[in-house]
Design brief:
The complex is a heterotrimer of chains A (292), B (243) and C (364). With 292 residues, chain A is mostly helical. Chain A contains eleven helices and two strands, in the order H-H-H-H-E-E-H-H-H-H-H-H-H. In chain A, helix 2 packs across helix 8, helix 2 packs across helix 9 and helix 5 crosses helix 6. The chains are: A mainly alpha (292), B alpha/beta (243), C mainly alpha (364).
């Protein structure tokens, strides 16, 4: 049973990280129905920043986390104003945003390939193996999971302990009602957008640790995983995202313990996504049923 | 269950004990009504009393949780909207639902006309509502009042026996209301059966023969409009809960 | 509507240009003025026949200009895929990110038919189209979804299909298949052109038929469309199957051209991506938009994309962002859009429907 226990702990560690990846996407989709297909690419961009710090500046790549935040906020602010007002006027905002952010994702992938090349890069491990419940886990994985917890807690505080967080939740629940009760949707939306982008880039360095390395195409897979996580956990529900992350993490990790299933691990998020959207499109914690 | 107003008239729509439950909310509870050829029944009640839900159940947008709907004697409970359209039942919408990417003419051309039945009303629907001149315009460019008329024209294009009219008057000016009321009266005279959801009493007075008042999903009054406005329960619901 | 009994409105129209002729009961394809000095009736025929006939004929002579049949055949295959995307996204609003699944299924079905059952090339093509249609049937529950859910769920489905084909010993997925020569290179190109003509004919037929009008109505407002008597589920499903079968045919001829099947090639998500980008670039809901989009962008790909794929990615990424924000109708809307704008301006001060109410001032 050692293998099984290892898989459980490993699944939880990955699950926390998946929650971290999903949470920024959830904020954008929940508030404005924007489908940020560039989310995963922003994550990878953050990862490359960590790589640059380690390889070029010879400092710990975890510095990428604080350093990337201001850049991400500015980037989010600019992209918001360049795209969102027009998207909101489109007939089908959701599909239009899907297309625009898909374009942005391709631009990001192209830029990353030009700057860093198409090959996989890896980050030096931040330390020796860490022992948990009597088994050893790579330090990179444990640190990433450990950093995901305060990040998720921060977003929880933002949503539930601040005025703008209250307004954000109001917009997520029903935008028209929120407008009617005096919420300034634009301000909520700009901040949600900027914070969503910042969460993506901060998760970047951790991604390089968790996945063993990154390349410019890592992002698209991450975007799908992130979508799976937030759809399972119900849109607009940050705690649901954590649970969704844990489920995806555990399912992927446990599939690795089955000899037959190892080559299927990569497909686990896709299968989960299909099952959830067909069986329970509102997610596990969804009160409102999505018009399908 | 009240008898139809005119014993000899043709009963087109029979709604019996229809109930619709959402999660734990009972939106419509055991409502019964008849729609008779050449007459109009008003459906009145405060916001959230279940009128539109009832229309949605009758028109196949929602399945009822209980009860039956019959169209010319045929059981159509839970039948899909497109089938109901072909069987001679159509509707308008509280919030206009234009086919915005299509021209006004195409909004009518797309309708599948009924087969095997001579329509009770077969004038050109766009001429009838007064939108003929707008035929080449995209429907999304009409005003919302015009879009409501387009909804009406599209419903008429299918040659219905029964027409459900959901708050056609809301948001229209006095002059526009008069125009719309005269249209509905002409439809009634042509032999259609109308079920008219409306808040505006003056508007209803010009059209309906009897009314059914709903509150919290259930029937609280049935009879003439004159009787309704003097009924203590109706007054209580309206003074207590009207916006 | 006298001819209404000829074809049910929400059944797919027969995919031949000939039958499309009888399908114009809507009057919408009849511009009131003249096109190139022709009357409306003749103009309508020009709009139908020219794309279906002239496009393949022009491309037939393309090898005299640029003699690279592999490139040209692949380009024609992409035109078919872009038209398939056009049918789905342009007419129903469903963006199929996993469209490549049908392409891969077609390639796989055709390859298996050639290698295992030793069928003739034409039979293999039909089997490829059928395989894709069967996959379309299996994943048709996805049509219950909309927007991003649909786009991402089809993507997930295509990846699951890819893993099944790639990882199972009985599918030849691990070893791959090499195909004997079925058609010569020129023959393959001509057959690809025929498939493309079929795709164009289907698009014309859909554009000009009641079926197409129904699809556009559904895209505008499914509830109203249903109330207008349109069977929404059936119409969407029909568009879905047509689109799947076209991708299957494209995959089959592609597999025959490459004479090899390795799952990672025909299931590569880039194929979906390119087909969508090409269609959007040229303009969906037009017939020639996806053709022009494919010819321009795929030539650009050939020019810079093969040696420096990241530059091509950058270019088309920027193109998508710019198009989606500023020209959602693609290049095609530069032509049709200006015509529509002109028509609107001319007819703007009309209505007066509400008994003398001023247009625009009808409601408070």
């Amino acid at each position: 049973m050692q293998l099984f226990e290892y898989a459980i702990v490993n699944g939880v560690l990955f699950g926390l990280f998946y929650g971290f990846i999903g949470i920024g996407l959830n904020l954008l989709f929940g508030v404005m129905r924007l489908v940020n297909l560039a989310h995963g690419d922003l994550v990878v961009f953050g990862g490359y920043l960590g790589y640059s710090l380690a390889v070029d500046a010879h400092i710990n790549s975890l510095w990428a986390i604080p350093l990337s935040i201001p850049a991400a906020l500015v980037f989010g602010f600019l992209v918001y104003h360049a795209t969102v007002p027009r998207l909101r006027r489109a007939v089908d905002t959701e599909t239009a945003s899907l297309i625009v952010f898909f374009g942005i994702s391709q631009v990001l992938e192209a830029l990353m390939t030009m700057i860093y090349g198409a090959n996989q890069v890896t980050l030096p491990s931040p330390g020796g193996p860490v022992s948990l419940f009597g088994q050893d886990y790579p330090a990179s994985v444990v640190i990433s999971a450990a950093l995901s917890v305060p990040a998720l807690a921060l977003l929880y505080l933002y949503l539930y302990r601040t005025r703008i967080g209250l307004a954000t939740r109001a917009v997520m629940a029903d935008e028209d009602e929120a407008v009617a009760s005096g919420v300034r949707v634009r301000r909520v939306a700009v901040w949600a957008f900027m914070i969503g982008v910042a969460f993506a880039t901060t998760a970047g360095t951790l991604t390089a640790f968790m996945l063993g390395g990154i390349n410019p195409t890592t992002g698209s897979g991450l975007t799908i995983t992130a979508f799976t996580v937030i759809i399972i956990g119900s849109l607009g529900n940050p705690l649901g995202t954590v649970v969704g992350g844990l489920l995806v993490g555990l399912a992927s990790s446990l599939s690795l313990t089955q000899a037959y299933a190892t080559e299927w691990t990569a497909v686990v998020p896709y299968v989960l996504l299909l099952v959830v959207v067909l069986v329970r499109p509102s997610g596990l914690f969804g009160a409102t049923v999505r018009r399908a | 269950m009240s008898p139809p107003p005119d014993v000899g008239a043709e009963r087109l729509l029979e709604v019996r004990d229809v109930t619709r439950v959402f999660a734990s909310l009972i939106a419509v509870a055991n409502v019964s009504l008849d729609v008779v050829a050449g007459s109009a029944t008003g459906l009145v009640g405060p916001n959230g009393s279940g009128k539109t839900t009832l229309i949605n159940v009758i028109s196949g947008v929602y399945r009822p949780s209980g009860g039956t709907v019959r169209l010319r004697g045929r059981d159509v409970t839970g039948t899909a909207s497109h089938r109901l359209c072909r069987l001679g039942l159509n509707r308008t919408f509280q919030i206009p639902h234009p086919l915005g990417d299509l021209t006004v003419a195409d909004n009518i051309a797309v309708v599948r006309p009924r087969r095997g039945a001579t329509p009770r009303f077969d004038a050109d629907p766009l001429e009838f509502v007064g939108l003929a001149a707008a035929a080449p315009v995209l429907a999304s460019r009409l005003t919302s009042g015009e879009q409501k008329l387009l909804d009406l024209a599209r419903a008429l294009a299918s040659g219905p026996d029964v027409l459900l009219v959901d708050e056609l008057g809301a948001g229209l000016s006095a002059r526009e209301l008069e125009h719309v009321a005269s249209l509905l009266v002409r439809l009634k005279d042509a032999g259609l059966g109308l079920l008219v959801v409306e808040h505006l009493m003056d508007f209803l007075e010009q059209i309906v023969d009897d009314v059914l008042v709903m509150d919290a999903g259930a029937e609280i009054f049935r009879g003439t409009l004159r009787g309704a406005v003097s009924d203590p329960r109706v007054i209580d619901v309206y003074l207590g809960g009207a916006p | 509507m006298p001819e209404d009994d000829a074809t049910p409105a929400d059944a797919p129209p027969p995919p031949t240009p000939h039958d499309a002729a009888g399908a114009d009961r809507t009057g919408r394809a009849a511009p009131s003025g003249r096109i190139w000095g022709l009357r409306a009736r003749e103009g309508r025929w020009v709009r139908r026949v020219v794309p279906v006939v002239a496009t393949p004929v022009l491309l037939f002579f393309a090898p005299h200009v640029y003699n690279n049949l592999a490139f040209l055949t692949t380009m024609v295959v992409y035109v078919v895929l872009a038209e398939g995307v056009n049918l789905l996204y342009g007419f129903t609003g469903y963006l199929p990110f996993g469209y490549v699944g049908f392409f891969g299924a077609g390639a796989y079905g055709a390859s298996l038919a050639v290698v295992d059952w030793h069928v003739t090339g034409l039979v293999a093509l039909v089997i490829g189209g059928l395989t894709a249609a069967i996959i379309g049937l299996v994943v048709s529950p996805l049509l219950r979804l909309s927007g991003a859910y649909f786009a991402l769920a089809t993507l997930a489905a295509s990846q699951v299909l890819y893993y099944v084909v790639a990882n199972e010993p009985w599918t030849y997925g691990e070893s791959g298949m090499s195909l004997p020569e079925v058609f010569g290179a020129t023959e393959t190109y001509v057959i690809a052109l025929v498939i493309m003509a079929l795709a164009l004919a289907v698009t014309v037929a859909v554009r000009d038929s009641r079926f197409g009008l129904s699809l556009r109505a559904i895209r505008s407002d499914p509830v109203s469309a249903a109330m207008a008597g349109i069977d929404v589920v059936r119409a969407r499903t029909a568009a879905w199957f047509i689109s799947a079968a076209l991708a299957g045919l494209a995959g089959a001829i592609w597999a025959i051209m490459t004479a090899a099947f390795y799952a990672e090639n025909p299931f590569d998500l880039t194929i979906s991506v390119y087909a969508i980008v090409f269609a959007l670039f040229g303009g969906v809901r037009t017939v020639l938009g996806p053709v022009i989009g494919t010819v321009v962008l795929y030539s650009l790909y050939q020019y810079i994309g093969i040696s420096n794929p990241q530059y091509f990615e950058l270019v088309y990424g920027l193109l998508i962002v710019g198009l989606a924000l500023f020209l959602p109708g693609g290049l095609g809307s530069l032509v049709t859009g200006s015509a529509a704008r002109w028509r609107r301006r001319r007819t703007r001060p009309v209505t007066g429907a509400l008994d003398g109410a001023a247009p625009g001032g009808g409601t408070p």
